[in-house]
Design a protein that fits this description.
Helices cover 50% and strands 14% of the residues. It is an alpha+beta fold and 417 residues long. The longest helix has 31 residues.
Length: 417
């Protein structure tokens, strides 16, 4: 499970404080060739995934020094919804927590953003007083039911104690206070057992259906595909690369399903499997990009040198290879950059950071390049059969790029084949 992020934004926001009744927690948290180059680049991107993994059962320790420095230690952010959303807190060393007046402050997203928009207008104590909910950490377990939430809202949990707003930090020399925070939304029956945030709702079912689609497709086509690959031919390399890319996507879908199946039970999942799923997804995307660029650029650049009767094959001119390598390398660099900017990892991204924006711009430029290359090929082709193949290939390219761009905006969509 990932460590709780310690990137602290200045203290939070919200309305008048409300007392919280401490009750026994009833939730259930648990504890030298193209292939080598592509593999190396994908591995480089994958290394970025291993430093973090998402979970909604969060473990860590309260840090008074960090809370003082940041005017509040950020614990977790979660999108709650419904009538029975619950936040469960378990702590150790209750005596130390009570001695330093340890408190958990909850803020809604609107107030949080408003607070950050005018940070200089509020003192430390004023910021803490604006919290909508205060949870005094003077008992081992708490179970707080949030008020009815008509529309999904992000809530921020912030830790602070009596040392947080001092002018100079005084080291209390007390023992560590460890915690476990479990965040639960109501399920279909209205019971607070759903570990998925509003932004993650439906992921488990989606990956189940996706795995089912891959399984059925494999049962239907795998034998014919294997026989075609064994025969060889001018498109042999292309078929192998496409098959590997599809296999990587299927493995990614299966790994995500396993991760979310566990996540649905304990809010933690299997972080390593989740990271492995995204690594497979990135490797598949990089491999598909390299293939499309090599095919389109190769066909375009060597078109005039080919005999009209010569069948299609994967051209490998220095120009096309260089262009593809540069584009793929740029994409991998942006993917790695984006991974280190995000706190949670999954096979879909909001791409709201600078790296994400540049990644979208790169994909748009590549889409225009592919469209131009394919247009030239189709306009010059005399063979009706080949022209039809190019048109079909263009549709597949557009589908792949549309899938990539929709996923870039955080929508969960079917992986392109």
């Amino acid at each position: 499970m990932r460590s709780v992020s310690r990137d602290q934004a200045p203290p939070p926001p919200v309305f008048p404080a409300a007392d919280v009744a401490a009750r026994r927690c009833t939730c259930h948290p648990a504890g030298g060739d193209r292939t080598e180059m592509l593999g190396g680049l994908a591995l480089l991107a994958g290394l970025a995934l291993l430093h973090n993994a998402g979970a909604k059962t969060v473990h860590g320790s309260f840090d008074s020094a960090l809370a003082w420095h940041s005017r509040g230690q950020h614990i977790v952010t979660f999108l709650f919804h419904g009538d029975q959303a619950v936040l469960c807190v378990r702590i150790t060393n209750v005596a130390a927590a009570a001695g330093k007046d340890a408190t958990l402050y909850l803020y809604q997203n609107e107030q949080w953003l408003k607070m950050h928009g005018s940070m200089e207008e509020y003192s430390c104590t004023e910021k803490l007083s604006l919290a909508q909910v205060l949870i005094p950490l003077n008992q081992t377990e708490y179970n707080y039911t949030l008020p009815q939430i008509v529309y999904p809202k992000a809530w921020y949990a912030i830790y602070a104690d009596k040392y947080t707003c001092l002018m100079s930090y005084e080291d209390p020399k007390s023992d560590d206070i460890t915690y476990e925070v479990t965040l639960l939304n109501p399920d279909a029956a209205g019971n607070p057992f759903d570990h998925f945030g509003a932004d993650e709702s439906g992921l488990h079912e989606f990956y189940f259906l996706l795995v089912l689609v891959y399984f059925v497709a494999a049962c239907i086509y795998i034998q014919a595909l294997w026989q075609t690959i064994k025969k060889g031919g001018p498109m042999h390399t292309v078929l192998k690369v496409l098959s590997i890319a599809l296999l990587l996507q299927a493995v990614s879908a299966l790994a995500n399903y396993i991760h979310f199946s566990r996540y649905a039970r304990d809010g933690k999942g299997v972080p390593f499997i989740g990271s492995f799923a995204e690594l497979c997804d990135i490797a598949s995307e990089v491999q598909m990009l390299y293939l499309l660029l090599s095919l389109c650029m190769g066909w375009t650049l060597s078109r005039m040198k080919k005999s009209q009767s010569k069948p299609l094959q994967w051209d490998s001119t220095p120009t096309s290879t260089g262009f593809a390598v540069v584009a793929v390398t740029a994409q991998v660099i942006l993917l790695v950059w984006e991974q280190f900017e995000e706190n949670e990892h999954h096979s879909f991204h909001a791409h709201l950071s600078l790296a994400g924006t540049l990644l979208i711009a790169l994909k748009i430029c590549l889409a225009m390049s592919l469209a131009f290359g394919l247009y030239q090929i189709i306009s010059l082709e005399r063979s009706t059969m080949k022209r039809q193949f190019y048109i079909t290939f263009s549709k597949v390219c557009i589908l792949c790029l549309n899938c990539a761009l929709h996923c870039s905006h955080g929508f969960v969509c079917l992986h392109c084949v």
